[in-house]
Write a structure and sequence with these properties.
The chain has eleven helices and no strands. With 300 residues, it is mainly alpha-helical. It has one domain.
Length: 300
């Protein structure tokens, strides 16, 4: 069972697979579909892959309780709600600012530690501030932002999406702080089954109301890419939920959220030969320093 590996190995796996998940989504958007229907189709098959793989990674279903099933469904609803509200926000305002605001949701579970009896040191607090700067500097202002001005409706959808994104981490912590923490598989499977049902409905709805009857991307590439994304997503979901029960929130959440952002930046520059701006390199450097402080490697 993969969750029996040392914590450092689990952190490395979740950082790498989280980055790969983002890459598969970018490939799907570029080569298959950029539409809302395409997004729901991607999440649908991603969820199917996760539902199959999670019990394998966890060594079976283990114990099952109503608590884990119900909180799992709530977790799935929050995850889907975050996708819906983000999709509502993106067409209404600046893309880069939207992603910065939603990414800062990491602060919500990070600062939830004291509610679970954990403490945040001064050095970790400094690292968390640097983490915020890393997110801000890691996102470039896109050209399309010029035609998408910030407005109240956009801001509301962004803030709701941010809160829901933050609640994902909080719910992970809540479940792992409960007497049912060993029921990780059924918690996650319940959430992904909910996602499968909702995404299936949303694909049908988006297809029906499309003015030109946009085709559902049920092609070899359209299915294989999200399935691959689901395989990579299953690892961080299982590992992050497990780590939420054994690591302080102020350490775990910044590491599993900021390090994939940094790794994706590095992959973009080295593998895909993207020309990164000075701003993004500054964000990368700040991210490295923030990780050292948050993890306790450097302190004062």
């Amino acid at each position: 069972m993969i969750l029996a590996l040392p914590t450092l190995a689990l952190l490395a796996i979740t950082i790498v697979t989280s980055s790969l998940t983002g890459i598969t989504k970018n490939i799907f958007t570029k080569d298959v579909s950029q539409s809302t229907l395409g997004t729901w189709f991607y999440v649908l098959f991603q969820s199917i892959a996760c539902t199959v793989l999670i019990p394998i990674l966890s060594g079976g279903f283990g114990k099952i309780s109503a608590y884990s099933v119900l909180t799992g469904i709530l977790f799935g609803a929050v995850c889907c709600g975050q996708v819906i509200t983000l999709l509502k926000a993106l067409p209404l305002g600046p893309f880069s600012y939207s992603m910065v605001i939603v990414s800062l949701a990491t602060l919500i579970p990070t600062l939830s530690g004291p509610f679970f009896g954990e403490t945040i040191t001064l050095s970790q607090g400094f690292g968390i501030v640097l983490m915020v700067l890393c997110v801000v500097f890691s996102t470039d202002k896109k050209k399309e932002d010029e035609s998408r001005k910030a407005n109240a409706k956009w801001l509301i959808w962004c803030l709701v999406s941010t809160v829901l994104n933050g609640m994902i981490g909080v719910l992970q912590k809540v479940h792992q702080a409960s007497p049912h923490k060993d029921e990780l598989p059924i918690f996650l499977v319940s959430s992904f089954i909910f996602s499968i049902i909702l995404c299936g409905v949303m694909v049908a709805v988006e297809h029906k109301r499309s003015p030109v009857k946009e085709p559902i991307p049920f092609t070899k590439k359209g299915v294989l890419i999200p399935l691959l994304g689901g395989i990579t997503l299953a690892f961080p979901h299982a590992i992050n939920l497990h780590l939420a029960g054994i690591m302080p929130a102020a350490v775990m959440f910044p590491l599993v959220n900021i390090c994939p952002l940094m790794l994706t930046t590095l992959i973009a520059a080295t593998v895909f030969r993207e020309r990164l701006s000075v701003r993004r390199w500054i964000g990368f450097a700040i991210g490295v320093v923030s990780t050292l402080f948050v993890s306790g490697t450097v302190s004062f």
